[in-house]
User: What shape does this take?
Amino acid sequence: MSKTNVYAGGVAVDQAERVEARPFLPFLIVLFVGSGCAALIYEVVWFQLLELVIGASAISLGVLLGTFMGGMCLGSLLAPRFISRAMHPLRAYAFMELGIGVLGALLLFGIPLLSGVYTPFASSGFIGLTLRAVVAGVCLLPPTILMGATLPAISRWVETTPQGVSWLGFFYGGNIGGAVIGSLLAGFYLMRVFDVTVTTFAAVGLNVAVAALAMLIAKRTPYAPPVAASEEEEAVKREAGVWPVYLVIALSGMTALASEVIWTRLLSLLFGATVYTFSLILAVFLLGLGIGSSAGSALARKTARPREALGWCQMLVCVSMAWTAYALMKSLPYWPIDVTLPTDSWVKVQLDLMRCLWAVLPGAIFWGASFPLALASVATRGQDPGRLVGGVYAANTVGAIIGSMSAGFFLVYWIGSQASQQALIAISAFAALLMFAMPAPGADPAKAKSGFMAVVLVMAFVSGLLVLSVPPLPPDFVAYGRFNPVRNNQGANFLYVGEGLTGTVAVSQLPSGILNYHNAGKIQASSDPADMKLQRMLGHLTTLIPANSRNFLVIGCGAGVTAGAVSIEPKLERMTIAEIEPLVPEVVSTYFGEQNFDVIRNPKVDIVIDDGRHFLQTTKQKFDGITSDPLDPWVKGAAALYTEEFFQMAKERLNPGGVVTQFVQLYESTEEAVKSEIGTFLKVFPYGSVWVNNVGGQGYDLVLLGQAEPTKIDVDELYRRVNSPEYSRVAQSLREIGFFSTQNLLATFAGQAADLAPWLKDAMINRDRNMRLQYLAGWGLNLYRANDIYLNMVAYGPRLNEGLFVGSPTMLEELARMIETGQFR
Assistant: This one.
């Protein structure tokens, strides 16, 4: 081998030494594993912290995701233009990793501070959206730009030969492999056991370790930068007519992220929308990308026709998407599996993992293989590897941004998941045709044209069959989700099925006439007597206990029954319903008008489409009562409505004498989760109380009631008021749920903080910085121990609390007897 000397930083380094450095290339894959792991940990933490500031609505999530990926795209484009080729690639990479670690630590403390700046100016509409984007950009752009710059920067360590390009694919695969580890580590361990602080500094530690290792390798491997080429020379080195490759890799990114959004929605119905489900789906998707990237890298090293291979990849993506559509909407929901049988959560995780691999892995593999094949398709010898990787990576990321946001905001909401997946198959088929339309170098033009026409005919036929094979979304799957194999034989008549921005909603009617409102793959509300009792209890306790009853806030519309109970308060002047899903008010106004007193059309009622926490955080109003009836606490994001900070925020929004009420379920939960909910509430409302709604004498669910000051309930005054002509509708509403006097309602009392103190002594307080509840509740998704939890909670024996109830001796004695006998518990 000849030795060509070049001059680098005052040190003569020959070409042979550059070749000698190649044994260290496998170590660079290890660096990218650590880098990818840290990046996913940060993503989990930052999204949780920022959603607490700008809201957890679909708009907020879209802004966050778009900003995150936009930063990655900017980094990949800017890095090769602003980082000198004379700088050692490994040192540049190390500095970027250190920068990410520093910014990660700063954001941990900086994001909560932004809340104070954001809240006074927050609003709805275009101005509010712009402000959310600014906040997200300030937080996410600096670190994500550095993240996006790492691969283009380190790519200068290799040359744009087939072997060098394949190494770039391996680096990309290693980064994705690390992301798999980060997703699982954050979702199943760090955030479950610790908090955002420990989780963040675990990622910072990874950044520092990766940077140190990169510096060590750089010290042992001299770098000889090639002579920098001008823009014109770079353009000459790039082969003409490569734009179709960039378009195809952009379309590949678009279909990949759009499919991930759609599949995540469907799989969350099948598995339950817990934090563990989202971590699992993301990990499997990334695993497929990593496997595909490694396979594509190996193929890119050997094939002389990478564009054709890229075309076949896109065609196989079409087949894979059709397979996944069939698996998710026709096969998996009907596997004869009773998911309530395994009480060990790890067994459920294993089952969900296998089903996720079965459905998601094939498509992810072919999307992953597309990236290194696209690199090989546009690479020419002597080209700047940084610009090569930056351009392809940026195109792929731009497509990913378009795909994720279009699927999240438009496609599913406008045309449904079936038509969306059909459109994505057609787009992938078009991408494949683009590659086959590019003749191989030296090919006969006439033969190439005839061959292309034959390919078009075959692919049009095959892709048409694949499009037609996508099944519609089954109503019973929407309604019963993971319970579908055991509960879809109830003879329900589906009155409505709709796919919204944040979830999929259904309304069904049983042969008995009971109406069910379905969301998140389960019944969330119904006209069943047990459900009606809880929903109206929640509403009436909110209006009957406070000193004044003029202005109320209802967080979570559901079937509208709780809001309806609030709306018939005679003194009501204004009520606001904060609902995150736009479909819900329209649906419940159509089907549950009788049960909810037609609350949606009530002129005193304002409907706000927003995350309830974000609305409460940004509104200037104060309320006489705030009632919160969110989705189950195991649903990702719902735990933010059970944190100490949220309850404190609600407390500060009360008028003097106002109340806060909160729904707590005992079913599908763990005792630790229920303790966390109650313990957190009573920490903010030390004078709070617990009221119970049991079914058939068995524990079922609870209502928590709190006030800023010590609560006093005058039983005589309450009795007089509800029995007055003015309150006739309230009295009738109570009778419909089995309460024939206010004494019956008050007899559901189950205790106060002092009564429950022995049981709550080990309660884990749910805070914004740990959001422990979503992990505790998610772990108990398959548990049905409601009565055991209830019996442990009231083991002391509920009794009349003389500090809470005041009134005449006769009324108090009657109430004491009802409470002690448990007749209404």
Q: What stands out?
A: The longest strand covers residues 654-665.
